[in-house]
Amino acid sequence: MVIPSTHVGPPKLIDFSCRIREPDSGSAACLLTFELEDKEGVSTNQEGNTSIVNMEMQPSTLTTLLEGLTRIRDQLSSVANKKQ
Fold first, then answer.
1. In this structure, which long-range contacts are made by residues 35-39, counting pairs with CB atoms below 8 Å and at least 24 apart in sequence?
2. What is the pLDDT of residue 45?
3. 17-65: per-residue pLDDT in tens?
4. pLDDT at 1 over 80
5. Domain chopping of the chain, boundaries
6. Which of 8, 18, 32, 34 has the smallest number of Cβ neighbours within 10 A?
């Protein structure tokens, strides 16, 4: 499938990093950094425009995310086992 150059879509993930900030006086947090490449013509007229997005997740948010991903994995495994 060939996607025309005028296709509009989400930015391309180039790189990411994840690290844990140790608690000093508050609670620990997961720090995520994403490097994204905007598609041509979406946000600027320059090709290859990159941007850095930083996120901080508190432990409760990270726990909720991981629990959701675990449920999805379990559901997919269940479907895969039924087809065998």
1. 36/11, 36/12, 37/11, 37/12, 38/11, 39/7, 39/8, 39/9, 39/11, 39/12
2. 44
3. 999 988 877 788 999 999 999 765 444 444 558 899 999 999 899 899 9
4. no
5. 12-82
6. 8
37: its two tokens: 């490449």
- Mean of pLDDT values over 61-83: 92
Backbone angles phi, psi at 66, to 5 degrees: -65, -35
Taking the C-alpha atoms of residue 28 and residue 22, their distance in angstroms, rounded to an integer, is 5
Cα Rg of the chain (Å, integer): 19
What is the structure's pLDDT at 3? 56
pLDDT at 10: 82
Half-sphere exposure of 40 (CA within 13 A, CB side): 6
Q: Strands (DSSP E) along the chain, which ranges? A: 12-21, 29-37, 50-57
CA atoms of 66 and 29, how far apart (whole Å): 15
